[in-house]
Each structure stands twice: as structure tokens, then as C-alpha cells.
Amino acid sequence: MSGRLRVAVIGGGQNSEHEVSLASAASVHAALDPAGYEAVALTILRDGRWLGPDEQPLGSSTADSLAAVLGVLSECDVVLPLLHGPRGEDGTLAALCELAGVPYVGAPVRAGALAMDKWMTKRVAEAVGVRTAPGGLVTRNDLSTVVFDRPVVVKPIAAGSSFGVRLVQHAAELEPALRAALELDERVLVEHVVTGREVDVTVIDDPEHGRRVGPPLEILVDDGLFDTTTKYDGSAAFEIPARLTEAEVEELTDSALRVYDALGCRGLARIDFFLTSDGFVLNEVNTMPGMTAESQVPKMFAAEGLTYPELLDRLIRSALVDDEATVAAVG
Asked: Which residues of this UniProt protein bind Mg(2+) 2 (predicted)?
């Protein structure tokens, strides 16, 4: 035994962000050893089975696999669940860790479920005075009643990485966009197009400094829509820190913290806004955003001098501190 803390690094998942999650997990795994941790790689395949640290299947069925992975988790000190999207970021993995009694990085069950649901996130944000784009909820039963009266953005309620998101500028495009989104989710959000700069900010719980808001990041996209293709083809540029006035930074920080607290987030969350002529409008909340060294969140904190391994170290230590506090409160 090395005596180092063992960190279960979970990647993959049963959703459209499987490959994105694998990239996050691989990057984190490579960075943990220099940070003084022993990384234990676990992968969830698309069919729900798990691969162990040796990349061999754990059990012959999903049920056997899940039973086996609980044994692996019991030998780890903390879990870094790097799944993005449904059956992972939505509180599913947090629930598994809770039941297994293992500390984990990131949002607790309720916060993950609420933040993944874009419709509920809107309701929570509006309740605490944070503006969102006007919009409505659409199901398959509503298709015949949806009327196009202005450009809109169509989004699956609980898909991540902008999968299924389409900008609809003409009436003939609306039904195909809705049907495509409904292939990914049984509920779809249709929002008015918001004109403004896309500015993101990340909140982390730092064991050394308390709750910490990173420098704002502005996404610069030529065609104005930061969709799945643009996110991963390298055509988008990031400006850190975003060019904001002192008053704008104050408003952004206040809005982000209000949403973070109202949802019950913990550990970290990237909170995305549009800066319009009337101020900030919430776009969405990611409780487990992309975490490769080149992803937005590590880049934000690197701009403040916090290296990628140092950021991971802060997140892990924060999870352990939160667990100790929870145990003390229960006891």
C-alpha cells in the first residue's frame, strides 16, 4: 500500500456524452498522480456494465457489475464522478455514493437532479430573482399545438453538451427540431432567442478559501450558437477574464451564487449566462462540467494561477471536508 488517498475516477456513462466523459476521466486520471493521489479508474459502458481498474468487465451482467463495483468503491477514500448528463450528473452517481457511504466530489443527489432539468432550473432561478429566457415546456403530446411566432432555441430538458439543441429561425424548422430533441428526451424546452454575450462562471468550494468564484469566461463564436459541434471542433475561442465592468462582475457573481445556493450545489458548478443590454440572463447550470485540462473550468482557474492538479486537489479535499462535517452533524 502506498499510503496515498485512493480516488475512484469514474468515466463513461449511458448517454450521449459518453466520449466526453471518457476524455475528462482520462485527463483527471493522468493528473492525479503528480498531485499525490492514487487514481482508481472505473468506466461505465454504454450498456450499463462497469470496467474495473484493469479495464476488464466487472461481472457478466449489469447487476453483477454493480455489485462488484461497490466492493471497489469501498476500498477508495473518495469518488470523482466525471459523468456528464443523464444517469450520472443528474444525481444518479451521487445516490450510489451516498448508499455506498463513500465521499464524492460534486453536487448531492437533489442538486444534481434539479440542475440537470433545465425547466426546473429556470423555475428555481426565477424564484430567487435571477432572470431566465422566456420559454415553455413541450412534450410529444403538445407537438400539434406549438406555434412559431419568433426565433427560438429548442433544447432537450436533460441532455448535456448541447446535444439536440437547435436554433429555429423559420416556422418550417420548428417541428423537425422538436422531433429531434424528443428523440433525446421526453420533455423539451423552447426558449426565446436571447441576444447577448455568452459569459460563464464557476463556483467551487475551496477548503483553503471557502466558496470561491473563478474569473468569468466569455465564449466567442462566429455564428452565435455554441452548439455541440462548436464545443468540440476547436472553432470557439475563450476570453479569460471576460471583459466586464466592475458592476457587471458583481452582478454576475451575485446571480451565480444565488443559483448555486438555491439549487443546493456543492463542490463545483459552472453557471452559464448571457449578458444582454438589460443585464445577465441565466442559460444553464452544469454540476459536473467537462474536466479535461483544456476544458473551460480548469482554464478559468488557471487564469488565476491555480494549476489543473491543484484544482483537482482542492475539489477532492473539499469533498472529504464536507463528508467529515456531515458525519459530525449526524453523529
From this structure: 284, 286
Active site residue 295: yes
Choosing from 16, 65, 161, 318, the catalytic residue is 161
Task: Pull the grid cell for residue 65.
Answer: 457489475
Check if the beta carbon of residue 260 is closer than 8 Å to that of residue 108.
no
Closest CA to 152 of 140, 125, 130, 170: 170
Residues in the chain: 331
Range of the domain at 141: 135-192
- Strand pairing of 38-44 and 6-12? parallel
Any idea which residue has 477532492 for its cell?
A: 316
* Number of domains, the chain: 3
The model's pTM is: 0.91
Residue 329 belongs to a domain: no
In a shared domain, residues 43 and 123: no
Catalytic pick among 21, 27, 295, 318:
295
284 is in an annotated binding site: yes
- 286 known ligand binder: yes
Last residue of a domain, one of 177, 192, 207: 192
Q: Is residue 291 part of a domain?
A: yes
- Domain boundary, last residue among 157, 192, 227: 192
pLDDT in tens, 38-55: 999 999 999 999 999 999
Shared domain for 262 and 177, answered yes or no, is: no
- For residue 55, give Cα distances in angstroms to 4, 7, 41, 43, 49: 22, 16, 8, 8, 12
pLDDT tens-digit profile of 255-284? Answer: 999 999 999 999 999 999 999 999 999 999
218 is catalytic: no
Phi/psi for 291 (5° steps) reads -130, 30
Q: Work out the number of other CB atoms within 10 angstroms of the CB of residue 195.
A: 11
Q: Which residue among 17, 89, 191, 198 is the active-site one? A: 17
In a domain, 327, yes or no: no
Same domain, 100 and 183: no
My answer on whether 19 and 54 are in the same domain is yes
